[in-house]
Amino acid sequence: MKNRKFIAMGFVSVVAVMGLTFSTTLFAKNEVEPEEAQNSRLESLAKFTKVLNIVERYNVDNLTIEELMEKSLQGLMSNLDAHSTYLNKKHYENLKVQTNGEFGGLGITVGMKDGALTVIAPLEDTPADRAGLKAGDIILKINDDSTLNMTIDEAVGIMRGEVGTPIDITIVRKDEPKPLEIHIIRDIIKIQSVYSKQIFDNILYLRVTSFDKKVVSDVKKEIKKHMDHDEGIVLDLRNNPGGLLDQAVGLVDLFVDSGEIVSQKGRDAAEERNYEAKASATITHAPMVVLVNGGSASASEIVSGALQDLKRAVIIGEKTFGKGSVQVILPISDDEAVKLTVARYYLPSGRTIQAVGISPDIEVLPGEVTTRENKYALKEADLKKHLESELKKTNDTNTSDTSLEDAFKESQKKIITPEMLKKDIQLKEAVDIIKALIIMKGK
Of 78, 309, 325, 428, which residue is the catalytic one? Predict the structure, then answer.
């Protein structure tokens, strides 16, 4: 299979950002099998044909041979692993639509975890996000259809639909006493994969929501725009379900001069690849913190894991999802294909991501910052001889400069304020770490 196009990593999802590249030809190995192996293969195929004939003849439902073969292929692929599947004409066409165009959907990425259909991440400002779906939610039902024994592709096919149409998702959520029913209206899914904000005056906040084909160029553009005055970078990969491998490698390469970023190892030696950093691609050595959580999967785990192994960034948040396998789409006809796991990814240290995930350097659970004010604390203003004149100057400055306040309101969407940080304890912890790194770098 060495001539096969390399396929992007990522989940088959309700949004069109996990792009899988389609190969056009299925290349078979021209290896001569030993006679014993050939006999074993023939015996196994004969057994399969015999079972197929028995089911066709005696099964209570009158199924055609085509229907039985499709069920056989579905069973074969789904029993290999959670991400391999057989794509019939309908599902193959759906996958092409997701990869190549806009469509009505919910804006969630789903995967199989412990045999259950699980929300990997809701993408920001999509119907699923606005309706309150969260990473880790287990989907019990889609409308009235149970997800028991439902494949990822079948689930995606049901959740996609005409813009403006409703859908009900029944979920089980950790710490909730009973299942929740989420009502969602489908919409066109358009994703802004990269955006930035300023944290105070010397920290750049970069949010990457998925790894589409423009991530590296967009991140590079944002860093160059702020490079003159930014002393630290917070890279937020929370709820990022993955995407294109080359973009994950390219993103790491912006921050490191040398070393292995990730390696790919499969059964076939032709599938093995090593991806190395190039000094020419590096654009900044600013201190970094990376934010991750249980919705960070696939390509985002490669980025965070590589930066962790290469001692380039501090990883903060929660343990990631744990998807480190490579899927390819192999057509078997013009209308059908199989999606097959062909390799796994390994980080610079040699550790695998698959079913393990990335453990943060500093674990911080989500939530708000809670503080208590000491009503009995003695302050300068409480003293008899406090500096009234200085206090008056301060008060006058705070109340009279309306132009500054108006300017702040105008730029508020591009600035993360201390008040905003109090609403996100993980981000606040990241900012505190960055401040310490900046101080240490200065020393």
Answer: 309
Q: Say what the pLDDT of residue 32 is.
A: 63
Q: Give yes or no: 236 in active site.
A: no
- Annotation says 424 is catalytic: no
As a whole number of angstroms, the distance between CA 89 and CA 190 comes to 26
Contact 164, 105 (CB under 8 A): no
Q: Where do the domains of the chain lie, and which CATH numbers do they carry?
A: 1-28+48-102+191-368+414-443 (3.90.226.10), 104-188 (2.30.42.10)
Q: What is the rounded radius of gyration, in angstroms, for the C-alpha atoms of the chain?
A: 26
Digit-coded pLDDT (tens) for 68-96: 999 999 999 989 998 899 999 988 887 77
One of 113, 134, 197, 323 is an active-site residue; which one?
323
* Active-site choice (193, 298, 300, 304): 298
Tens digit of pLDDT for each residue in 296-343?
A: 999 999 999 999 999 999 999 999 999 999 888 899 999 999 999 999
The rounded distance, in Å, linking the Cα atoms of 325 and 10 is 9
Q: In the 8-state DSSP scheme, what is residue 63? A: -
Verify whether residue 441 is a known catalytic residue: no
Plot region of 164 (φ>0 → left; ψ -120 to 50 → alpha; else → beta): left
- Among 243, 232, 248, 236, CA closest to 206: 236
Q: How far apart are CA 302 and CA 430, in angstroms?
A: 20
Strand, coil or helix: 214: coil
pLDDT digits (tens, 9 = 90+) for 418-430: 888 988 999 999 9
- Measured between alpha carbons, how far is 91 from 74 in angstroms, rounded to an integer? 12
And the tokens for 275? 């991806």
Question: Cα dist. 429→41, 360, 433 in Å?
Answer: 58, 13, 6
Q: Among candidates 266, 259, 337, 327, which has minimal Cα distance to 297?
A: 327
